[in-house]
Each structure stands twice: as structure tokens, then as C-alpha cells.
Amino acid sequence: MRKPIIAGNWKMNKTASEAKAFAQAVATKIPSNDKVDSVVGSPALFLETLVSESKGTDLKVAAQNCYWENAGAFTGEISPAALADLGVQYVIIGHSERREYFHETDEEINKKAKAIFANGMLPILCCGESLETYEAEKTAEWIEGQITAGLADLSAEQVSSMVIAYEPIWAIGTGKSADATIADTICGVVRSTVEKLYGNDVASKVRIQYGGSVKPENIAEYMAKENVDGALVGGASLEADSFLALLDAVK
């Protein structure tokens, strides 16, 4: 039985004081991690605050990105070794906004995944298609290509422990959402791709999230589906009450 995982992605939002207030409001109120893994993905500026405020609680902290080298002349990049030293547990990589606005490739995302594992953290690897790809009915092959390239040369043990998030680009921040049946179908494509690459045992263990206009009002519909193990949530994770409501909706 795969444990559900709900991860908030704040994107480029909040100030340091707002991040601290959020952590103080939720850290001691989230459900036990026997029930659900609760994760907040924050801009790098606030990670130390979140790690400090969540210490001794079941709230886990994710970075929104990192580089694939631990150190060097890479001005402005985020070292995975430094994230691990800070106490960060997850790193979101391959988000559609990183791919679209910053032109990240599958190969770069794969290098980041390796660096994250090498530093004892877990990647949340995102995949997803554009509206054009979806309407052309090429979603399955697009997703299979992203997953195959993103997981290249990772071990079965690594893939079993990581998280993959399916987030259709056309459903992020648009108010549109893939319905639960579509989400389950494409999360199933992700799982079948993992099975082709690593076998059924790994495919049955890897956790797959859906992301795209998920709210407390609709999360239960997604979580009821066989292949959906959680959600990567944007706007609805920004307020403490809303984030807690997402967690409470997980049965």
C-alpha cells in the first residue's frame, strides 16, 4: 500500500515572515505521517525557516529546484549538498514552468535527480503535456518520453523511493483541471512506463501525484483513483487553512 503524499508548491510567492507564520500555523496540526506525507515546497530563501519551524513535527520541506553540481562557479544556482545540509528532504525538479520559461531539458532534469539522490534527498520529478499535445492525443507518448529520459540510469531502489508528479500544463493556474478519470489514466501511463523500465515491483512502489488546480473541494476525487497517490498543489497550498484541509481530505 503506497502512502499518500501531498506537496505544496509555493512557486515564487510569500515573504520570509509569511513563510514563518505559515509553518507555525501548520507544523503541529498536520496528520501523522503514518497517514500521509505532508510536504511544503518553498522558494530557497525560506527553506531554513521552514526546516527550523518544522523540526520535531511531521511536516517535510522541499526545495523547488537545484543544480546538478554540489559546488563551483555556477552563480545563482542552488547546491544540492547545501540543501541536504540544511535538512531539506525533497526537491521538485522538471516543473513545467522550469521547462517552459528556463528551457530545462530532460537530460538536465535527469542529472538533477542523480545529484539529489547522491545527497540523500528525494526528487519529485514532474512531467506533463501542453494543450496542443493533449488535443493531438499524443499525451501518452510524450509522458513516456519524459519519464524514460528523466529516470535514465537511476537504480530500481532509487525509483521505488522517489515521487513522480503528472501535471498537465493546460491545467496549471488556469482554473481548468484534468478530471479524475483523465488524471488516473495518465498517472497509469507513468506507472506502466516505470514498469517497462524497472518491472512491476518498482512500479507498484513509486508514488505518483496529480497536479493542476487541485483544491480541498476536489482532492478526494483524485485520491480515490487507483494510480493517484497524492497531489502537487499550487495556489491551494499557500494558506494554512487550505493546506490543512487538503491533508484532512486524505482518507
From TrEMBL:
SUPFAM superfamilies named in the record: Triosephosphate isomerase (TIM)
Catalytic residue positions: H95 (electrophile), E167 (proton acceptor)
Any one GO cellular component localisation term in the record: cytosol
Positions of substrate binding: N9, W10, K11, G173, S213, G234, G235
Localization, UniProt: Cytoplasm
Record keywords: Cytoplasm, Gluconeogenesis, Glycolysis, Isomerase
EC number: 5.3.1.1
Catalytic activity reported: D-glyceraldehyde 3-phosphate = dihydroxyacetone phosphate
EC primary class: isomerase
GO molecular function: triose-phosphate isomerase activity
UniProt-listed GO biological process terms: gluconeogenesis; glyceraldehyde-3-phosphate biosynthetic process; glycerol catabolic process; glycolytic process
Name the UniProt record assigns to this protein: Triosephosphate isomerase
Organism, as annotated: Enterococcus italicus (strain DSM 15952 / CCUG 50447 / LMG 22039 / TP 1.5)
Gene this chain is encoded by: tpiA
